[in-house]
Amino acid sequence: MPAIVLLGAQWGDEGKGKVTDLLGERVDYVVRYSGGNNAGHTVITPDGQKYALHLMPSGALSPSAMIVIGNGVVVDPKVLLEEIDGLAERGVDVSRLRISGDAHLIMPHHRALDRVVERYLGTRRIGTTGRGIGPAYGDKVARMGIRLQDLLDPGILRKKLELALREKNQLLFKIYNRKAIDVDETVEEYLRYAERLKPYIAETRVMLWDALDRGETVLLEGAQATMLDMDHGTYPFVTSSNPTAGGACVGAGIPPTAITKVIAVSKAYTTRVGAGPFPTELFDDNGQHLRKVGHEYGTTTGRERRCGWFDAVVARYACRLNGVTDLVITKLDVLTGMPKVPICVGYDINGERFDDMPMTQTDFHHATPIYEELDGWWEDISKARTEDELPENARRYIARIEELCGTRVSIVGVGPGREENVLRHPLLP
């Protein structure tokens, strides 16, 4: 009963959607287990069609896999329905979608509070997308959340919303001087969503257990990435869920013993969006080059991504934390034409060398990267499909990443297209 976890090894945007798409024809279920529409996956199909997915699992583009939004996801129903409609208009079969009835809803007060609190924080803001994800998870933990299953019971929906707004409207109106949320309008709006979403709502845990019992393959697709994990990332500059491998079990209802493989995706360099520490960040022409050539702009927000050299300390941390069995390195082609390609192999913190992540937030904020410079390459690698077709210096770069991370590199991305990859080891038998 094979379950496979696919996650990001950095701060997100590593190209997980492309890998899901690669595996989509060979798995039976693709499950999104965390996050909300603050995440985005970009998938380019063989015919050149580009899809920007936010809540829908990337497996939506596979021809036959069931696609599941698990209980660990927070769902904005308006955004989800817009995405469903957009995919259907382009000929994508969305009837295979199932959503856990235990997934929590993003409500209007969550979006309102997310935006106003970020503005209130000013220069100390976290850098959220303002889409209500954090407040929705906060209410989930505070046992004040509203779930998808509540859409099926208008009485329960109203009672839960009235209870939530008793507090939230006080905050919005009296503290932040914003308009209060109207209960009647919100109930009416969300019951309209319920009419359309009802066919998709299911007990997804049992569905996945039964699939595993039949020996079918379940791919658990993470949003965001390891360094944005609520517990294991660069807190407080993190997301509000657990996109790590352990979070896959909680967010989908999959037993840990069912997981047979953990695939981590990392760029050949490093990026992050939003505020927070980033030791290898570049502020020079090299950073601008990576952003321009790599088209480093957020799928969901359009924000410029911060760019830096590959950080092997972060990547090794992600591999050990998640029990990674296979690394996928994407966007190696972006480094083509650079005379030197440095790799961060450790940190200098107040004169002391750290080869692993420092324990404290303060130390990580003050970490100075220790670089090892490798020679670059000038050859066009976009047509390479085997390791032998890569330039020698590109092969050395990948081999050094593999050595530093202690995990084999199974696939190397040499372009954005589905087929633009070098296969070193098969991800599936």
Automatic annotation (TrEMBL):
Ligand binding (GTP): 12-18, 40-42, 305, 331-333, 413-415
Per its UniProt record, what InterPro entries does this chain match? Adenylosuccin_syn_GTP-bd, Adenylosuccin_syn_Lys_AS, Adenylosuccinate_synth_dom1, Adenylosuccinate_synth_dom2, Adenylosuccinate_synth_dom3, Adenylosuccinate_synthetase, P-loop_NTPase
| One GO CC annotation | cytoplasm
Which catalytic residues are annotated? D13 (proton acceptor), H41 (proton donor), K140
- Kind of enzyme, top EC level? ligase
Q: Identify the cofactor(s).
A: Mg(2+)
Give the pathway listed in the UniProt entry for this protein.
Answer: Purine metabolism; AMP biosynthesis via de novo pathway; AMP from IMP: step 1/2
Tell me a GO biological process for this protein. 'de novo' AMP biosynthetic process
Residues that bind Mg(2+): D13, G40
Cellular localization per UniProt: Cytoplasm
Swiss-Prot/TrEMBL catalytic activity? IMP + L-aspartate + GTP = N(6)-(1,2-dicarboxyethyl)-AMP + GDP + phosphate + 2 H(+)
Q: Name any one Pfam family assigned in the record.
A: Adenylsucc_synt
What SUPFAM superfamilies does the record point to? Answer: P-loop containing nucleoside triphosphate hydrolases
Q: Which CDD domains match?
A: AdSS
Subunit structure and binding partners? Homodimer.
Task: Cite the PANTHER family for this sequence.
Answer: ADENYLOSUCCINATE SYNTHETASE (PTHR11846)
What the entry lists under NCBIfam families is as follows: PRK01117.1, purA
Instruction: Report the function annotation for this chain.
Output: Plays an important role in the de novo pathway of purine nucleotide biosynthesis. Catalyzes the first committed step in the biosynthesis of AMP from IMP.
Protein name in UniProt: Adenylosuccinate synthetase
Record the organism: Micromonospora sp. CCTCC AA 2012012
Report the gene name.
Answer: purA
